[in-house]
Amino acid sequence: MIRIHDLSVRLPGFSLKKVSLSIQQGEFFCLMGPTGSGKTLVLESIAGITSISGGTIIIGGRDVTSLPPNQRGIGIVYQDCALFPHLNVKQNIYYGLRYHGGLSTTSAKRCDDIIRQLNLSRILHRSVIALSGGEKQRVALARALATAPKVLLLDEPLAALDPCFREEIRDLFKRLHSDTGLTVLMVTHDFTDAHSLAHRVAVLRNGKIEQTDTIPILFKRPATKAVAEFVGIKNVLPVRIENHLLRIGDMVFPYEGKNGKKHYAAIRPERIHVQAEQTGRQMKTGYWGNLVSAANKGLTTELTIDVSATRLKAVLLTRSFSKMEIQPGSSVIVSIDPHDIHLV
Amino acid sequence: MRSRKLCRGTYRHSWRFASKSVKGKDPFLWLAVGCSGVVVAFILIPLFEMVTQPTIVSLKETLMDRDVVRSIRLSLLTSGAAAFISLVFGTPLAYLLARRGFPGKKFLESIVDLPIMIPHPVVGIALLSIAGRNHPIGKTMQAVGIELMGTATGLITVLTFVGLPFYINTVKAGFEEIPPRLEHVSRSLGATAGATFFRVTLPLAWRHMVVGAIMCTARAVSEFGAVVIVAYHPMVAPVMIYERFTAYGLKYSQPVAVWLILVCLVLFALLRVFSLKRKPAP
Question: Does residue B262 belong to any structural domain of this protein?
């Protein structure tokens, strides 16, 4: 449905470098990345709001690269909703209809359906200034859907909402997407949103796509060090591969792959097993470590452990950690299943 | 509960601070209050004296004087025309400056501000120098029958020149206050750039445009230096005041000045009304 090939944008101090994406008809696709990675720029380039310096953009089989935004058949919803403050809710929703054949029986029915689905009937004649965050977002969504766009572009639509509204709007997006089968491209930096909504995710960093995959693969097998760090893998450590052995500092693990150019081992903190020294239980591969700190994060506790000169981060359930009766300075035994080591 | 206590504490502290200051333990505050008093007195006392010195009879007589009425009417009409021209030509320029980044933008902004900095008699001489027969623009103007020297056209030209920066800067600030995303959304909904301007930008910026036009008019009404070079006649109000002052003295110029001040006060009141009534952004 959306095909972007070698999209490049040059701005003072920042540029998008040959971004390519392919989003299927009816897919819910998330574009993720840290702040300032160029996510919104990609979205606005697709919308035709930002002028591009190279590449092609195809929406619904039509090359729209040189078309103005009003001819691209897209709908856009921003984080701040961008509602027209001089118009009431109904006028906002109906704003685009005059550019799409006016108020016909079909469009009126479509708008009525959207208003009903988004539960906006009671606030139709209210000023948009007085609406709550969730209501504003629903109006912005209704306005974008009223013109029956081929593609819906969402720019961090949940980021500015209170947690209660956030849940509500997230469910709404999910329901609307499954009901309408609309192609959606959402920019976000929130994994919860991506987990619950997206079929596939692309990670953007410094204006360049690092990886495009499903969320589980992105978490288990990040393609680069940057993606590994972005998906919360706190142990991204330099590695040496010699004679079917992986060496991470003084730790050695069996390795079945070929000697290659992989430079880092990515290990999720929850996959690092920690035992108190005195428990005496045997582990297959264990190393002595020194507990440097333990940060209570509520349900979990994040441990910082030095194994020789290698610093590891491990996460334990706070309840399990309390049972271990260890504190900073204690010796611990650290074990890692070689299958949990992902090379990038 | 805790936060409420904290708030109250902060409030009490600031109240104590203020009360101590008023009691005279903060010399800087007293210095600031003293300077403010001097400034306010400096502005108000001469104006108050001028407004109260002429008698009602002399004010009435001045209002019956056809020359005075004609000069005030001419001042208003030419200034209004200057504001209208600024609106027509200045609005697109203000929009361009507010929304687009391009090479030479700072230079263009400086050019817009230039009329504020140039001594106004110089403005008059500069305009006359291009309106003469020796200049191609002057030749073209004379060919189509446009004369600047001693005409209402000359007055409007010179008043537009001095008023334009006030209009453009005010409207530019207005456009800058409107989030560009509103225009982006409008474009994505199918509106062309023109339709977006008239349906989104203009309804949100009209108050700034009115304020800009009032500022431009007020500036033009008070213009003397450039006007007296380009068109001593037909006589606008500031020139009339000057002529009465030089020919008959202070007493005869004051009633005309009072009426001009009243006109300016009306403009000032309109300015306050439009600049204060602003809707909050969503």
Answer: yes
